[in-house]
Write a structure and sequence with these properties.
Layout lengths: L2 E4 L1 H6 L8 E6 L2 E6 L7 H19 L3 H17 L2 H19 L9 H14 L1 H20 L35 H11 L5 H10 L3 H4 L7 E2 L4 E9 L17 E12 L2
Parallel strand pairs: 1-3
Antiparallel strand pairs: 2-3, 4-5, 5-6
Amino acid sequence: MEVVANVQAIVFALGVKTTNVVKQLTEGDAVAVYEGERDHENDAQVMECYEKAVEACRVYGTVLFKDYIRHWLDDIIKNRVGSYNTYYNYNSVVCNHIIPVLGNKMMKMINTADIVRLYRKAGEYSKSVAEQVRTIIKTCLGYAVKEKAVAVNVALGVRMPKSLNIGNYHTRTIESKNTLTLEQVKKLIEGSKGSKIHLMILFNVVMGLRCSEIIGIKYSDIDFVEQKLTVRRQLGRDIKKNDSELDAKTYTKQEIATKNTIQCENY
C-alpha cells in the first residue's frame, strides 16, 4: 500500500518551518510529500520530525470515518462556531445519523454510493435531518480534502432523494403555511402589550434578533441620541468553558461575543 500525503500542516504542528522546497521521504510502503526546509543547525531534530510525519501519513491512510469526523467536530467546528447550540446540534446529527451509516468505513473507501445511502437513510427519519446531514457531510469531507485525508470530496454533486423535495445546497425554502402573515404579526404585538415578553417580540419581529441576542442587550448598547442599537453579545452556553468549573445556575447565562457586531437604527 502506498500512501501519498501532503503533511505540511503536520510538520507545522511539529515545529518545522516550511518553504517552497519539496522533499520526499520513503519508509516501507508509506511516502510523505511535503513542503519543508532542512534545518542544518539541528539536523537530528528535523529528521525526527520527518519520521513522525511519515508515521502520521501511514496512520492517516487507514483512519476510520468515525474517528475523523470526531476530530473535525471537536478540534475544528467546536472552536469555529462558538455556539454551544450549534455544536450540540451537529454532534447529535453526527452521532445519531451519520456515524451509524459510515462510521466504520475507512476514509479512503467512502464513495458516492455511500453518500446516496446516507442521504436516503436520513430522509427516512425527516427532511430537516437529511438537510443537516448533507451540510455536515459536505463540509466535513471538504475539510478532509484540505487536510489530505481524502483525495476528493465524494459528496459534491450527489443529489438528495427526489422524494424529499429538497432544494439546492445552501438554499432555504420557506413554507408560507408555517410563516406568520403581517396581520398575525400585528395581532401578536398588540396582544403582548403589558406583558414581560412584549419588548422581546418587538426586537425579534422588527429587528430579526435571536432570543439569545435580545436577552444579552445592555443599556450601554443603546444610543438614544442617534437612535441606534448595537448588538455585541448574546447570553448562552460558552462552548469554550468547562461546565465543571461553573455554577450550575450560570451554564446558559454566559456572555458570548457575537462574531459580527450588529447595528439596528431608526426603528
